[in-house]
């Protein structure tokens, strides 16, 4: 429970659940010292939640008698959105949030009307979302740190380990977080490389917010930048293909990981790189759209080999069919 916001909310929950608690009990439950506890009590007071302090041997803290938080009012659509959000969060690879998801669901169901409670409970028991499985453990602390730094426009110093196990220290202007393919990434301006970069959170050993601030580009798309970065990874051979279809159609067939798609009149251009022309030709064979290979010539040869293979298989199956008849 390292996040102060989580501790303040837990303090409120304790005061609502228990009629009276001593400062020692609250400090132990929150795992903080008495000075920090008083700061959290003040935070509740600043939010308009009156906490009375009773001094003396049997003193402690309690919510002002008669004070109640307003009931949580959700429409059916809002309850569905919250329930689906909790289901989706289960697959994001952040182990620390697993208990919190269950307690959050229980608290929501406790204050929902009976009909919405039944709906949310049924959804949590019967629905499953097929999201990409987490391929690396998420770090709650880093996730909150970069989210906060992004919102506050605050630079971050980080120790990073790349895929070659080389360690570097970077200063980053974080522009946004992305969960993609079972991993968390942070994208932004890297001062070491003097360019936009994306970093896997599971490869960040340490991160420290700095006092320096920055201006975030208004039109920056973290997910789009990450997709473009992955598609542009340095591979052996550059590929250019024009597809005669709409952008949404070809992206649905090939996915954005394969390369960078750009509209080209009534067609779509794909610029990519690959270490295997045979593999790339196999991806093209699956497409229901007409296309033209602009580069390299070797990809045309690889596609011809795939076509010849399919014709051989078709002829072989035709012969087998005749023999069976």
From TrEMBL:
In this chain the HTH deoR-type domain maps to 4-63
The GO terms describing molecular function are: DNA-binding transcription factor activity
Identify the InterPro entries for this entry: CBASS_pafABC_assoc_protein, DeoR_HTH, HTH_11, PafC-like, WCX_dom, WH-like_DNA-bd_sf, WH_DNA-bd_sf, WYL_dom
Q: Which UniProt keywords apply?
A: Transcription, Transcription regulation
Source domain of life: Bacteria
Please state what the protein is called: YafY family transcriptional regulator
- Species of the source: Billgrantia montanilacus
């Amino acid at each position: 429970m390292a996040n102060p916001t989580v501790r303040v909310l837990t303090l409120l929950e304790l005061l609502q659940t228990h009629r009276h608690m001593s400062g020692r009990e609250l400090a132990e439950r929150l795992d903080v010292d008495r000075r920090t506890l008083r700061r959290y009590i003040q935070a509740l007071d600043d939010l308009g939640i009156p906490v009375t302090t009773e001094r003396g041997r049997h003193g402690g803290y309690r919510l002002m008698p008669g004070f109640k938080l307003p009931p949580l009012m959700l429409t059916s659509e809002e309850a569905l959105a919250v329930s689906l959000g909790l289901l989706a969060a289960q697959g994001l690879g952040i182990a620390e949030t697993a208990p919190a998801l269950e307690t959050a669901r229980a608290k929501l169901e406790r204050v929902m009307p009976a009909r919405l409670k039944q709906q949310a409970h049924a959804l949590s028991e019967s629905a499953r979302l097929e999201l990409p499985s987490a391929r690396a453990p998420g770090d709650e602390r880093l996730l909150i740190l970069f989210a906060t730094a992004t919102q506050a426009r605050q630079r971050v110093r980080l120790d990073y380990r790349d895929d070659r196990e080389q360690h570097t220290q970077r200063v980053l202007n974080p522009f946004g977080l992305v969960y993609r393919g079972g991993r968390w990434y942070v994208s932004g301006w890297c001062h070491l490389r003097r360019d936009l970069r994306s970093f896997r959170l599971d490869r960040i050993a340490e991160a420290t917010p700095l006092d320096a601030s920055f201006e975030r580009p208004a039109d920056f798309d973290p997910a789009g930048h990450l997709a473009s970065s992955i598609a542009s990874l340095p591979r052996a051979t550059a590929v250019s293909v024009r597809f005669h279809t709409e952008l949404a159609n070809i992206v649905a067939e090939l996915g954005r990981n394969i390369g960078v798609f750009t509209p080209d009149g009534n067609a779509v251009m794909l610029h990519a790189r690959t270490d295997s022309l045979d593999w790339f030709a196999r991806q093209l064979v699956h497409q229901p759209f007409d296309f033209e290979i602009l580069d390299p010539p070797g990809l045309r040869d690889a596609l011809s080999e795939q076509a010849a293979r399919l014709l051989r298989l078709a002829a072989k199956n035709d012969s087998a069919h005749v023999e069976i008849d």
